[in-house]
Each structure stands twice: as C-alpha cells, then as structure tokens.
Amino acid sequence: MYKLLIILRYLRRKLTPMFAVLAVTLCTAMVIIVISIMGGFLENMRHAAQTLEGDVIIQGDMTGFPHYEALIAQLEKMPDVQAAAATISSYGLLNLDDGLHTVEIMGIDPEALDKVVGIRQTLFWTPQRITESMDRHAPGPEASDLAKRNYQLQREFLESLDLTEMAMKLESPPEWFPPREQGNVGVKPLPAIVPGIHVTGSNVRDEKGGYDFRNNRTISSSATLTVVPVTRSGGLLEPAARKFVVVNEFKSGLYAIDANRVYVPMSLLQEMLRMDAHADVDPQTGEATGKTNPGRATAIVVKGVPGSNVNMLRESVYQQVRSFVSVHPDTLIYRVETWEQKHSTFLGAVLKEKFLVTILFAFISIVAVVMIAVIFYMIVLEKTRDIGILRAIGASWMGIMGIFLGYGLAVGIVGAGLGFALAATIVKNINAIQDVLTRVFGLTIWNPEIYYFDQIPSQMDPTEVSVILIVAVVASVLGAIIPAIQAALKDPVEALRYE
Amino acid sequence: MNKVPGNTQSLLSALDLHRTYRMGGQDLHVLRGVDLAVARGEWLAVLGASGSGKSTLLHLLGGLDRPNHGSITYDGADVFAYRDGQLDRYRNTQIGFVFQFYHLLPEFTALENVVMASQISSSVLGWPSRRKAARTRAAELLATLGLGDRLQHRPHKLSGGERQRVAIARALVNSPAILLADEPTGNLDADTGKQILDVFAKLHEQGQTIVMVTHDDRIAAAADRRLRLEKGRLADRAA
What we know:
The complex is a heterodimer. Chain A has helices spanning 2-13, 16-53, 68-77, 110-114, 119-122, 127-136, 145-160, 163-168, 255-258, 266-272, 310-327, 339-342, 344-382, 384-392, 397-428, 430-441, 448-451, 462-488, 492-497; strands at residues 56-60, 65-66, 81-96, 99-108, 192-195, 222-227, 240-246, 261-265, 278-281, 288-293, 296-297, 299-304, 333-338. A six-stranded mixed beta barrel of chain A has the order 3-4-8-5-7-6. In chain A, strands 2-11 form a two-stranded antiparallel ribbon. By secondary structure, chain A is of the alpha+beta class. Chain A is elongated and about 115 Å long. By secondary structure, chain B is an alpha/beta fold. The two termini of chain B are 19 Å apart. The model of chain B is unreliable at 1-8 (pLDDT under 50). The interface between A and B is medium-sized, with 25 and 30 residues.
C-alpha cells in the first residue's frame, strides 16, 4: 500500500518524472498521428478508387469494344451483380474560361453510372452549397438598396437552378442554359460538360476548406472540347471539336482526378471518337458495305450486391465475359479486374510505406525507452536516501523494486494517456492546423498536387491505437526495470549515508 | 560477554561481532569481536569517538547490515538466520531506528512519515481496515511528543528538534521491543538535545528498551549503563 502512496507522491511533487512523462507523451502522439494519417490516406485511396471505379472493371482498349449493351444486360442478370454501366475514356483538350487544358475525358450516362458508383454524391454545386455561399456574401445593412436588390435577384435566380439535376441529365440541359451566352435564344442548346473542381484554376479553397460559388467563373460558361479519334491500328482520324456548357463541377477528393477529368455525355463522346454505331464503309472504295458497325465503350464498371466478396464477384464476372466473348469474338476485352487489382501497385506501395514508417517510429520509441531509463536512473540517485530510510523502517528490496516499477507504469499510463489526447486533438484538427500554419507562416505542409487528396486524410483505428498505447506503457516499465533493480539492490546503510 | 545488571533477562545479544569494510583498496576492520547483551527495559549507552564503529554496531543490531563474523540473537532467535522477509519484519516491528539526521521522507507530512512505518507491514487489502487505527495511533504519538499542531507539516517546515520527535514517533509507531538511537541529539542545540533526552527518559520509565550510541559523555550519563567502544571492542565501563 505504501508503494502506491509513494509513487503518487513522487509523481506529483517532482519535475524529473514530468520529463519522462513528456517523452512518453510525445512518442505516443507521434506514432499515433503518423499511423492515423497513413491509415486515413490508405482508406481515402480505397474509398476514392471504389467510388470512381466500382467493384469490378471490364476494360477494353482505347478504341473500345462493341456489344457492350448486350454484355451489360447479361451481367445484370447475374445474382451477385447489382448494376453495371458502360463508360468511355479518352484524352483531349479543353478550352475553358481560363485557358486550354489537357484533360482525361469520360463519356458517361450519369443515371446508369450512378447505380454503380456514387457519381451524384461527387457533384459539387448542390443547392445547399450555393445557398451557403450566398449567405456568406449577404450585403450588410449599410449596403445601398440597389446592391441589396441585385443581391436578392441573383440569389433567387441561383437558388432556382438545380445544378445537380442538370448534371445528372447530361445529355439534355435546359434550353435556356447557359444564361451568360448571348444570342442563343432559339439556337440548339449546347450539350453539358462536368469538369473536376480543380480543372480550372478559379476554384480556390477558402480558409474553411470550402469553395465560393460567387467566385466561380466556370459554371454556365461554354467550353470547347477537342478530341482525336484513333483507329485500332493506331492511326489518327480527323480531330473533332464540340462546344459544351459547364453545368456543374465534381469533387471526388482525389486531386489527380479532380484536376484532370471531365464528364461528357457518353453518346456524344462516342460520336466525336467515331465509336458510335455507324454504317460500315469499304476503305478501298469509300462505299457503304451495307453492314453496320455497332457502338463501342472502353470499359464496363460493375457493382456487386451489398456484402458480396469483390474477388468472387470478379471471378464470376470473368466467367460471364468469357462465355460472352466466345459468342461475340469481336468484343476485344483484355482485362477483368477488381478496383484493388487495378490500383494494386499504388495501394501496395502505400501499405508498405505505412509499415516502414511504423518500423521507423518503433525505433524512435526505443530512444524513448533509453530516455526513461536515464531519467529513472537519475530519480533513483536522487531518492537514494529515501530508499535507505524505507529499508530501515522495514521495506523489503522487492517493495523498493515495486515502487520504481510502479513508478514506470504510472509514467507510462499518464504519458500514453496524454499522448493519446494530444494525438486525437491533432488528428481531428489537422487540416485546421495546416491552414493556420499556411496563413501565419506561409508554410504549405500538405500539397494536394503531390499527395493526391486535397485535404490531409486521417483515421484513428481503435485496434492500432490500443496497441500503440499498450506498447508505450510496456516500454515505460521496461525503461524502469534496470533502475528499479539497481534501487532494490542498494545497500541500505550506504543509502542512508548518501548525501 | 558483558554482565547484565539485575535479574532481567537478555532481550538482544551480540556474540563476537566482526565487521570489515573495504575502502580505498584496504580492509578497515571496524568491529573486532563485540560481545553485548541488552536486557529488557534497559537503557544502554554506547560511547565512542567518531569513526569507532558505533553506527555500524547499531546497524548490525537493527538487522540493516550483516556482520562478517559473529551472531546476533533476538528473543532467543538468530537474527541473521532469518529469511529476507523475516528480517524486514524484524526491522519493521521489533526495532525502531532514530538517526542523527532524522531521515524523514521529504515529500510526506509528519503524520504520513509516522504512518508509513505501519503502512509498510500492511497489504493493499489489509490497509483500509487498519488505516484509521494507524493514523489515530500516529497522531496520538505525535501529540504526546508535543507535535499535535504539526501533523500536516512537511519536514522542511519543522525545526531540528521537531523533526527528531517525528522520527521518534515513527520509531515507536509499531511498538517495537527496542529503540536504536544513533547520536539522537548530535544535530541539535543543548536545550533541544535535553528535550529529546527527556523524551527518552520518559519512554524508559514506561519500560522501553533503548540502545543509544553517542560520543558525548554527558548524553550517555542519562542512560542506565554505559559501554565504551574502543579499537573495535567494547570496554565494560565508560570513563
């Protein structure tokens, strides 16, 4: 009983153990923060990949494969498939409000694709976000009546727009859109395009991590997209250019996608890339052969029923594709893979990095153990006379060892607890902390162009955190073992004489 | 062996004690065959110059140190035949040490320092039931020694005499058979030293066995019997 009393008193009254507690706190916090960020990074990567790609991807080459509608119909009959949708991927040039951009173009049918991947959730300009943005810029009471009236009109108009629905009906935007274009009354409406939120440079994140609709110069402006169709043999055909109207922007959270990708209606992209159904022409004579080339897609994304195993789904989809190809030999599909397989090199690298960083920090923690050992050695020296006194009034050598081991345990528990609190606070507010550092010191720690995500991802895993906390406590006790033995073996007479 | 006065029986006895220290590569033969018998209820003073081995003798009697040769018998049992745990218990319950430099734990109050000695022999589970009685006993002892208003003071807030009285209370809290005092007045002025001696005299009156070592004849004069430690041996009569 006296041991507990002594441990608590030593802990409260001395500065030296506070250094040991600090060492444990910092080490624990450091490891938890690093693991949480790496874990969050991995989790975001997985989530983004799955949101963008679905569970299984049936991939053709750039010129695409025909009969995709029939294949989708067959796939959707499978019991473990919930939905499937075709897409076309290509590359091209986009002439936007702020200049020419090279972009990755995806031809999609939003309604069909939304059943496979959460495309609707990624559309950024929802009525709610527009309202919030307008609220932030409401004119103050000192503003002129004219300014207030203009604001009110603009607000009413913006709130009447449902940009999400417009983007979901990509092929047929309303005829009155875009309002900014002059003289388009009675002209055939422009088809719609949805670029990623970072394709244009005009969307700058504010301090709170949001974007301001009032500064947006992209929505409702026109954009010209130029593509170069290719033949199966790799030859180039005549480039095709089309004017589009920007109806919304999307934000997947994956910077590389948000800065490069644009969505356009699939049928239109098929047309531009000559992948739509068209009459076959004899290349020698230039005359119609009477046959029809069916429309093509470059990929089909598949979503499994909830709870289905992705690898098993891939296997059954693969079998289905094989039997389909045996009937339609012109369907050139060269890969059926899960989203994990598609990104395996990248995901694997991140996993390895996480493992390596953990090992590195484990080594740093050994330094903490040595520090605790040194600090405890000093405490034992400082407390030598107390050890003699306690032995003289009947304490056993085991009791003395127990005091210092218990002391190590207490330092470990307090240090690990504080470390956890510190880590939780930092992890929770890491983006706010980064914003403050950026504002005050002009220091950008997290550059989204390098790290894929536009925010620092973090996720505290309860199992990992528990293991780290236990290791911190065990390490503290380990650090205290040698000094504790040394204290226990001290000659009480010598200890009493210690000055 | 020295004669024990009267017909009281011997409580603690030492036979042919030798203790050698190794210092600076040389053997320092501090005790060279000490024989001693302490009777129950006796107040014995051991006189000796500084460095004569008085403290060493006291540490051996209290089971804090082990002799190179010889034995110590307490209540008929060989103290150094005890296992570690028994020796710890011997120090805790049968012996009460009072040191020249008080040796109080600086982080604890006067009351806590005294209670500590009874807490050491308690298990975690046993303590809650003993706690109240132990604290009452400690507070009473301190009050008897004139420290009733100093219970919550830490050692650095107490005078030398007060600290020594706290140390005496700690030595007495487990009602030990023998009080071993090492120059108990050595660090105090004459008046305060006198007060401490009065405390010892009172305890002696109540039947407490006391072994006190000192270099000061005037202090030793208060004891029933005086022995002189010279050249590592005990001489029967102090000068």
